[in-house]
## 1
Amino acid sequence: MEDTASRGIQAFIADVVERGGKAVRLTHSRRNPVQVWGDDGTSCIVRVRSKLSGDWQARKQDESLDDDDTGSQFWVFVDLASSPEEFFVVPSSEVADDIRAEVDLWMMDTPGRTRTGHHAIPLSRVAHGRGRWDLLGLAGEKDPSRYSDAQRATTAATLRADAAARASARKKPAKAAAALEELIDTRLEVVADFEGYRLVGRFDPDTQTLEIMRGPMQGRRFPDPTTAATAVASHISGDIETHDGWEFWRTEQGDRIPMGQNSIR
Protein backbone atom coordinates (compact mmCIF):
# COMPACT_ATOMS: atom_id res chain seq x y z
CA MET A 1 0.00 0.00 0.00
CA GLU A 2 1.09 3.58 -0.55
CA ASP A 3 1.33 4.27 3.20
CA THR A 4 3.59 1.25 3.64
CA ALA A 5 5.78 2.35 0.75
CA SER A 6 6.09 5.87 2.17
CA ARG A 7 6.92 4.59 5.65
CA GLY A 8 9.60 2.33 4.21
CA ILE A 9 11.17 5.15 2.20
CA GLN A 10 11.10 7.46 5.21
CA ALA A 11 12.83 4.84 7.37
CA PHE A 12 15.42 4.21 4.64
CA ILE A 13 16.20 7.90 4.15
CA ALA A 14 16.61 8.34 7.92
CA ASP A 15 19.10 5.47 8.12
CA VAL A 16 21.06 6.76 5.13
CA VAL A 17 21.45 10.21 6.71
CA GLU A 18 22.39 8.73 10.10
CA ARG A 19 25.13 6.76 8.35
CA GLY A 20 26.67 9.88 6.85
CA GLY A 21 24.94 9.89 3.45
CA LYS A 22 22.11 11.70 1.70
CA ALA A 23 18.96 10.37 0.02
CA VAL A 24 16.19 11.90 -2.09
CA ARG A 25 13.06 10.21 -3.38
CA LEU A 26 12.75 10.42 -7.17
CA THR A 27 9.40 11.02 -8.86
CA HIS A 28 9.94 9.85 -12.43
CA SER A 29 8.73 6.31 -11.67
CA ARG A 30 6.04 4.65 -9.55
CA ARG A 31 8.55 1.98 -8.52
CA ASN A 32 9.80 3.95 -5.52
CA PRO A 33 13.30 4.95 -6.64
CA VAL A 34 15.57 6.84 -4.28
CA GLN A 35 18.89 8.46 -5.17
CA VAL A 36 21.55 7.86 -2.55
CA TRP A 37 24.87 9.60 -2.00
CA GLY A 38 27.43 7.74 0.10
CA ASP A 39 29.66 9.39 2.67
CA ASP A 40 32.38 9.49 0.00
CA GLY A 41 30.14 11.45 -2.40
CA THR A 42 29.43 8.56 -4.79
CA SER A 43 25.85 8.27 -6.03
CA CYS A 44 23.52 5.43 -6.99
CA ILE A 45 19.80 4.77 -7.46
CA VAL A 46 17.98 2.16 -5.41
CA ARG A 47 14.49 0.71 -5.57
CA VAL A 48 12.86 0.52 -2.16
CA ARG A 49 10.40 -2.28 -1.43
CA SER A 50 8.69 -2.28 1.97
CA LYS A 51 6.51 -4.70 3.92
CA LEU A 52 4.71 -4.90 7.24
CA SER A 53 4.17 -8.66 7.06
CA GLY A 54 4.50 -11.62 4.70
CA ASP A 55 6.72 -11.32 1.63
CA TRP A 56 7.92 -8.35 -0.34
CA GLN A 57 6.11 -7.87 -3.65
CA ALA A 58 7.76 -7.40 -7.04
CA ARG A 59 6.76 -8.23 -10.63
CA LYS A 60 7.75 -11.14 -12.79
CA GLN A 61 8.83 -8.56 -15.38
CA ASP A 62 11.54 -7.45 -12.94
CA GLU A 63 13.55 -10.41 -14.22
CA SER A 64 14.77 -8.00 -16.94
CA LEU A 65 16.87 -4.94 -16.15
CA ASP A 66 15.60 -3.45 -19.43
CA ASP A 67 12.17 -3.20 -17.81
CA ASP A 68 13.49 -1.09 -14.92
CA ASP A 69 12.67 2.53 -15.75
CA THR A 70 14.41 3.68 -12.57
CA GLY A 71 17.90 2.75 -13.77
CA SER A 72 18.61 1.31 -10.32
CA GLN A 73 21.86 -0.28 -9.25
CA PHE A 74 20.42 -1.79 -6.04
CA TRP A 75 17.18 -2.86 -4.41
CA VAL A 76 16.63 -2.17 -0.71
CA PHE A 77 14.09 -4.39 1.05
CA VAL A 78 12.68 -2.76 4.19
CA ASP A 79 11.09 -4.84 6.95
CA LEU A 80 8.90 -2.42 8.90
CA ALA A 81 7.73 -5.16 11.28
CA SER A 82 11.17 -5.36 12.89
CA SER A 83 12.11 -2.99 15.70
CA PRO A 84 14.23 -1.24 14.68
CA GLU A 85 13.50 -1.64 10.99
CA GLU A 86 15.76 -4.00 9.05
CA PHE A 87 17.23 -3.26 5.64
CA PHE A 88 18.48 -5.72 3.03
CA VAL A 89 20.62 -4.32 0.18
CA VAL A 90 20.92 -6.46 -2.96
CA PRO A 91 22.36 -5.49 -6.39
CA SER A 92 19.67 -5.02 -9.06
CA SER A 93 21.37 -7.51 -11.37
CA GLU A 94 21.24 -10.15 -8.64
CA VAL A 95 17.55 -9.47 -7.96
CA ALA A 96 16.79 -9.79 -11.69
CA ASP A 97 18.71 -13.07 -11.96
CA ASP A 98 16.94 -14.46 -8.90
CA ILE A 99 13.48 -13.53 -10.17
CA ARG A 100 14.29 -14.96 -13.62
CA ALA A 101 15.30 -18.29 -12.10
CA GLU A 102 12.13 -18.46 -10.02
CA VAL A 103 9.93 -17.51 -12.97
CA ASP A 104 11.63 -20.19 -15.10
CA LEU A 105 10.62 -22.81 -12.52
CA TRP A 106 7.10 -21.38 -12.34
CA MET A 107 6.77 -21.53 -16.13
CA MET A 108 8.01 -25.12 -16.23
CA ASP A 109 5.43 -26.13 -13.63
CA THR A 110 2.51 -25.15 -15.88
CA PRO A 111 3.35 -24.61 -19.59
CA GLY A 112 1.40 -21.84 -21.29
CA ARG A 113 1.71 -19.31 -18.50
CA THR A 114 2.89 -15.78 -19.32
CA ARG A 115 5.85 -14.12 -17.62
CA THR A 116 3.75 -11.32 -16.14
CA GLY A 117 2.09 -10.57 -12.84
CA HIS A 118 3.15 -10.06 -9.26
CA HIS A 119 6.02 -11.99 -7.73
CA ALA A 120 6.59 -12.57 -4.01
CA ILE A 121 10.11 -12.33 -2.59
CA PRO A 122 10.53 -14.04 0.81
CA LEU A 123 13.17 -13.14 3.37
CA SER A 124 15.24 -16.23 2.59
CA ARG A 125 16.11 -14.87 -0.86
CA VAL A 126 17.46 -11.52 0.36
CA ALA A 127 18.74 -12.36 3.86
CA HIS A 128 22.35 -12.22 2.67
CA GLY A 129 21.88 -8.50 2.02
CA ARG A 130 21.03 -7.67 5.64
CA GLY A 131 22.78 -4.46 6.69
CA ARG A 132 25.01 -4.27 3.59
CA TRP A 133 25.26 -0.48 3.81
CA ASP A 134 28.80 -0.73 2.50
CA LEU A 135 27.38 -1.47 -0.96
CA LEU A 136 25.90 2.04 -0.91
CA GLY A 137 29.10 3.64 0.36
CA LEU A 138 27.69 4.16 3.85
CA ALA A 139 28.99 3.56 7.35
CA GLY A 140 27.98 0.48 9.28
CA GLU A 141 27.36 2.46 12.48
CA LYS A 142 24.66 5.10 12.84
CA ASP A 143 24.86 8.54 14.40
CA PRO A 144 21.24 9.59 15.14
CA SER A 145 22.32 13.20 15.70
CA ARG A 146 22.87 13.54 11.95
CA TYR A 147 19.14 13.31 11.27
CA SER A 148 17.39 16.12 13.13
CA ASP A 149 13.75 16.16 14.20
CA ALA A 150 13.16 18.95 11.67
CA GLN A 151 14.57 16.81 8.83
CA ARG A 152 12.48 13.86 9.96
CA ALA A 153 9.30 15.95 10.03
CA THR A 154 10.04 17.47 6.62
CA THR A 155 10.66 14.05 5.05
CA ALA A 156 7.49 12.62 6.58
CA ALA A 157 5.39 15.57 5.41
CA THR A 158 6.79 15.37 1.89
CA LEU A 159 6.08 11.66 1.61
CA ARG A 160 2.56 12.07 3.01
CA ALA A 161 1.81 14.82 0.49
CA ASP A 162 3.18 12.67 -2.32
CA ALA A 163 1.08 9.69 -1.24
CA ALA A 164 -2.04 11.85 -1.01
CA ALA A 165 -1.43 13.31 -4.47
CA ARG A 166 -1.01 9.85 -5.98
CA ALA A 167 -4.13 8.53 -4.28
CA SER A 168 -6.16 11.55 -5.40
CA ALA A 169 -5.02 11.11 -8.99
CA ARG A 170 -6.20 7.50 -9.00
CA LYS A 171 -9.64 8.09 -7.49
CA LYS A 172 -12.75 8.49 -9.61
CA PRO A 173 -15.60 10.80 -8.60
CA ALA A 174 -17.95 8.97 -6.25
CA LYS A 175 -21.50 8.42 -7.42
CA ALA A 176 -24.28 10.15 -5.51
CA ALA A 177 -25.96 6.82 -4.74
CA ALA A 178 -22.80 5.19 -3.38
CA ALA A 179 -23.66 5.75 0.29
CA LEU A 180 -27.19 4.35 -0.14
CA GLU A 181 -25.90 1.38 -2.12
CA GLU A 182 -23.39 0.59 0.64
CA LEU A 183 -26.18 0.40 3.20
CA ILE A 184 -28.04 -2.30 1.28
CA ASP A 185 -25.08 -3.89 -0.50
CA THR A 186 -25.46 -7.68 -0.37
CA ARG A 187 -22.61 -8.39 -2.76
CA LEU A 188 -19.70 -10.57 -1.65
CA GLU A 189 -16.62 -8.68 -0.47
CA VAL A 190 -13.45 -9.93 -2.15
CA VAL A 191 -9.80 -8.94 -1.78
CA ALA A 192 -6.52 -9.25 -3.67
CA ASP A 193 -2.93 -8.33 -2.87
CA PHE A 194 -0.90 -7.03 -5.80
CA GLU A 195 2.47 -5.21 -5.80
CA GLY A 196 2.00 -4.03 -2.23
CA TYR A 197 -1.61 -2.89 -2.70
CA ARG A 198 -4.56 -4.43 -0.83
CA LEU A 199 -7.49 -4.27 -3.25
CA VAL A 200 -11.07 -4.62 -2.02
CA GLY A 201 -13.99 -5.33 -4.33
CA ARG A 202 -17.64 -6.31 -4.32
CA PHE A 203 -18.66 -9.32 -6.42
CA ASP A 204 -22.23 -10.02 -7.51
CA PRO A 205 -22.65 -13.80 -8.01
CA ASP A 206 -25.86 -13.26 -10.00
CA THR A 207 -24.53 -10.82 -12.60
CA GLN A 208 -20.82 -11.73 -12.25
CA THR A 209 -19.93 -8.01 -12.06
CA LEU A 210 -17.15 -6.85 -9.78
CA GLU A 211 -16.72 -3.30 -8.49
CA ILE A 212 -13.46 -2.08 -6.96
CA MET A 213 -14.32 -0.42 -3.65
CA ARG A 214 -10.86 0.41 -2.34
CA GLY A 215 -7.45 0.72 -3.98
CA PRO A 216 -6.32 1.79 -7.47
CA MET A 217 -9.25 2.18 -9.92
CA GLN A 218 -11.62 2.64 -6.98
CA GLY A 219 -15.20 3.02 -8.17
CA ARG A 220 -14.71 1.16 -11.47
CA ARG A 221 -17.12 -1.68 -12.22
CA PHE A 222 -16.27 -4.60 -14.50
CA PRO A 223 -18.40 -7.29 -16.15
CA ASP A 224 -16.51 -10.18 -14.52
CA PRO A 225 -13.63 -10.88 -12.09
CA THR A 226 -11.08 -11.61 -14.84
CA THR A 227 -11.66 -8.28 -16.60
CA ALA A 228 -11.36 -6.52 -13.23
CA ALA A 229 -8.15 -8.36 -12.30
CA THR A 230 -6.51 -7.73 -15.65
CA ALA A 231 -7.46 -4.03 -15.68
CA VAL A 232 -6.35 -3.17 -12.15
CA ALA A 233 -3.10 -5.19 -12.38
CA SER A 234 -2.20 -3.48 -15.65
CA HIS A 235 -3.01 -0.08 -14.13
CA ILE A 236 -0.75 -0.69 -11.12
CA SER A 237 2.19 -2.25 -12.94
CA GLY A 238 2.11 -0.01 -15.99
CA ASP A 239 2.38 -3.11 -18.18
CA ILE A 240 -0.13 -5.27 -20.02
CA GLU A 241 -1.17 -7.89 -17.47
CA THR A 242 -3.38 -10.95 -17.90
CA HIS A 243 -4.87 -12.58 -14.81
CA ASP A 244 -7.47 -15.24 -14.07
CA GLY A 245 -9.95 -13.38 -11.91
CA TRP A 246 -11.14 -16.54 -10.19
CA GLU A 247 -7.61 -17.00 -8.84
CA PHE A 248 -6.74 -13.31 -8.39
CA TRP A 249 -9.70 -12.43 -6.13
CA ARG A 250 -10.43 -14.25 -2.87
CA THR A 251 -12.71 -13.83 0.10
CA GLU A 252 -11.22 -12.45 3.32
CA GLN A 253 -10.98 -16.08 4.50
CA GLY A 254 -8.87 -16.95 1.46
CA ASP A 255 -11.60 -18.99 -0.29
CA ARG A 256 -12.28 -18.88 -4.02
CA ILE A 257 -15.17 -16.70 -5.07
CA PRO A 258 -18.23 -18.69 -6.25
CA MET A 259 -18.65 -19.21 -9.98
CA GLY A 260 -22.21 -18.63 -11.12
CA GLN A 261 -23.95 -20.32 -14.02
CA ASN A 262 -23.15 -17.38 -16.29
CA SER A 263 -19.43 -17.30 -15.50
CA ILE A 264 -16.92 -17.60 -18.33
CA ARG A 265 -13.45 -19.08 -17.84
## 2
Amino acid sequence: MTTLRPSDGEYPRLLEIWRSAVEATHDFLTPADVEYYATRVPLYFPEVDLTVAEVDGIAAGFSGIAEGKLEMLFVHDDFRGRGVGTALLRAALDRFPDLTLDVNEQNPRAVGFYLHHGFEVVGRQETDSDGRPFPLLELKRA
Protein backbone atom coordinates (compact mmCIF):
# COMPACT_ATOMS: atom_id res chain seq x y z
CA MET A 1 0.00 0.00 0.00
CA THR A 2 1.26 3.46 -0.91
CA THR A 3 0.97 6.27 1.61
CA LEU A 4 1.79 9.90 0.93
CA ARG A 5 3.30 12.43 3.30
CA PRO A 6 5.16 15.73 3.19
CA SER A 7 8.93 15.44 2.96
CA ASP A 8 10.77 15.68 6.24
CA GLY A 9 13.94 16.90 4.55
CA GLU A 10 15.34 13.47 3.68
CA TYR A 11 17.19 14.87 0.67
CA PRO A 12 19.83 12.10 0.46
CA ARG A 13 17.08 9.47 0.09
CA LEU A 14 15.24 11.61 -2.46
CA LEU A 15 18.44 11.89 -4.47
CA GLU A 16 18.79 8.07 -4.34
CA ILE A 17 15.25 7.74 -5.66
CA TRP A 18 15.97 10.30 -8.37
CA ARG A 19 19.17 8.52 -9.46
CA SER A 20 17.49 5.10 -9.55
CA ALA A 21 14.59 6.46 -11.62
CA VAL A 22 16.81 8.37 -14.03
CA GLU A 23 19.26 5.50 -14.56
CA ALA A 24 16.32 3.18 -15.31
CA THR A 25 14.38 5.46 -17.65
CA HIS A 26 16.58 8.20 -19.11
CA ASP A 27 18.53 6.14 -21.64
CA PHE A 28 19.38 9.29 -23.57
CA LEU A 29 21.61 10.63 -20.77
CA THR A 30 25.27 9.73 -20.53
CA PRO A 31 26.79 8.93 -17.12
CA ALA A 32 28.36 12.41 -17.19
CA ASP A 33 24.90 13.94 -17.77
CA VAL A 34 23.50 12.02 -14.81
CA GLU A 35 26.32 13.27 -12.60
CA TYR A 36 25.74 16.84 -13.77
CA TYR A 37 22.05 16.69 -12.88
CA ALA A 38 22.79 14.90 -9.60
CA THR A 39 24.56 18.08 -8.49
CA ARG A 40 21.61 20.24 -9.57
CA VAL A 41 18.59 18.31 -8.32
CA PRO A 42 19.19 18.87 -4.58
CA LEU A 43 19.22 22.63 -5.24
CA TYR A 44 15.60 22.37 -6.39
CA PHE A 45 14.29 20.45 -3.37
CA PRO A 46 13.84 23.54 -1.16
CA GLU A 47 12.13 25.37 -4.04
CA VAL A 48 9.21 22.94 -4.39
CA ASP A 49 6.52 21.46 -2.18
CA LEU A 50 7.74 17.87 -1.84
CA THR A 51 5.46 14.88 -1.32
CA VAL A 52 6.98 11.50 -0.53
CA ALA A 53 5.33 8.19 -1.37
CA GLU A 54 6.07 5.33 1.00
CA VAL A 55 5.54 1.62 0.44
CA ASP A 56 5.75 -0.45 3.61
CA GLY A 57 7.48 2.43 5.36
CA ILE A 58 10.13 2.88 2.65
CA ALA A 59 10.37 6.11 0.67
CA ALA A 60 9.69 4.86 -2.86
CA GLY A 61 9.01 8.03 -4.83
CA PHE A 62 8.43 11.73 -4.62
CA SER A 63 6.92 14.68 -6.39
CA GLY A 64 7.67 18.38 -6.25
CA ILE A 65 5.23 21.15 -7.13
CA ALA A 66 5.76 24.89 -7.45
CA GLU A 67 3.01 27.34 -8.36
CA GLY A 68 0.70 24.67 -9.76
CA LYS A 69 3.38 23.07 -11.92
CA LEU A 70 4.66 19.56 -11.36
CA GLU A 71 8.39 20.16 -11.41
CA MET A 72 9.43 16.60 -10.56
CA LEU A 73 8.00 13.15 -10.11
CA PHE A 74 10.34 10.22 -9.67
CA VAL A 75 9.83 6.63 -8.54
CA HIS A 76 12.67 4.36 -7.43
CA ASP A 77 13.19 1.62 -10.02
CA ASP A 78 12.44 -1.07 -7.41
CA PHE A 79 8.92 0.34 -7.06
CA ARG A 80 8.00 1.18 -10.66
CA GLY A 81 4.76 -0.32 -11.91
CA ARG A 82 3.23 -0.53 -8.42
CA GLY A 83 1.04 2.58 -8.52
CA VAL A 84 3.47 4.91 -6.74
CA GLY A 85 3.67 7.41 -9.58
CA THR A 86 -0.07 7.32 -10.09
CA ALA A 87 -0.68 8.01 -6.39
CA LEU A 88 1.68 10.99 -6.48
CA LEU A 89 0.12 12.36 -9.67
CA ARG A 90 -3.44 11.97 -8.39
CA ALA A 91 -2.55 13.78 -5.16
CA ALA A 92 -1.02 16.61 -7.19
CA LEU A 93 -4.14 16.82 -9.36
CA ASP A 94 -6.37 16.87 -6.29
CA ARG A 95 -4.51 19.98 -5.13
CA PHE A 96 -4.06 21.55 -8.56
CA PRO A 97 -6.71 20.46 -11.09
CA ASP A 98 -5.06 22.68 -13.74
CA LEU A 99 -1.65 21.11 -13.10
CA THR A 100 0.96 21.60 -15.83
CA LEU A 101 4.31 19.90 -16.31
CA ASP A 102 7.25 19.42 -18.62
CA VAL A 103 8.55 15.98 -19.53
CA ASN A 104 11.62 14.88 -21.46
CA GLU A 105 10.56 14.11 -25.01
CA GLN A 106 13.23 11.38 -25.10
CA ASN A 107 11.59 9.50 -22.20
CA PRO A 108 8.68 7.74 -23.96
CA ARG A 109 7.58 5.84 -20.84
CA ALA A 110 7.09 9.08 -18.91
CA VAL A 111 5.35 10.74 -21.86
CA GLY A 112 3.03 7.75 -22.13
CA PHE A 113 2.34 7.81 -18.38
CA TYR A 114 1.16 11.41 -18.50
CA LEU A 115 -0.85 10.96 -21.70
CA HIS A 116 -2.53 7.92 -20.12
CA HIS A 117 -3.53 10.14 -17.19
CA GLY A 118 -5.29 12.67 -19.39
CA PHE A 119 -2.55 15.14 -20.23
CA GLU A 120 -1.94 16.51 -23.70
CA VAL A 121 1.07 18.11 -25.34
CA VAL A 122 0.61 21.86 -25.67
CA GLY A 123 4.14 22.94 -26.50
CA ARG A 124 7.74 21.93 -26.98
CA GLN A 125 11.07 23.40 -25.95
CA GLU A 126 14.28 22.48 -27.78
CA THR A 127 16.34 22.48 -24.57
CA ASP A 128 15.80 21.74 -20.90
CA SER A 129 15.76 24.41 -18.18
CA ASP A 130 19.57 24.32 -18.03
CA GLY A 131 19.80 25.01 -21.76
CA ARG A 132 21.04 21.50 -22.49
CA PRO A 133 19.97 19.68 -25.67
CA PHE A 134 17.21 17.56 -24.14
CA PRO A 135 13.84 18.64 -25.59
CA LEU A 136 10.92 19.08 -23.23
CA LEU A 137 7.25 18.61 -23.97
CA GLU A 138 4.89 20.98 -22.18
CA LEU A 139 1.77 19.18 -20.94
CA LYS A 140 -1.54 20.14 -19.39
CA ARG A 141 -4.76 18.31 -18.62
CA ALA A 142 -6.94 17.72 -21.66
